[in-house]
Amino acid sequence: MKRYNSGFTLVEVMVALAIFALTAGAISVANIQVASSARQIKDQTQGRWVNQNVLTQLRLSKDLPKPGQKVVEYKYNDLDWTVKIDVNSVEMELLGPFLRNIELKAYKGEDERPVDILSAVLGEPGK
What we know:
With 127 residues, the protein is an alpha+beta fold. The protein has one helix at 10-60, and strands at 68-76, 79-92, 96-108, 116-123.
């Protein structure tokens, strides 16, 4: 009487299930990290656009901004943004007080950490 071995043993099935579970877990962790990175990149990109828009408004104004700090509320892409502007005079004997060092920090909603920080220098034309 011949007996043919057909199918898998219980040990082989358990090993295959363990390998599948480890692989599925690793893939789900990788997907979560990718989604988190994509969300962070999207926020940073929008924060940079907000900072650049506020900087453009400062550039288009007739006068240089006065030294000090200012907070601007900004609505962009149906989100509320807060931009903290820090303006410092750049004192140089050759150029005089016609330059401003500006740092803009964009905050999304009620976040405590800035999403984007932008530094720029503005000057008065013709001086």
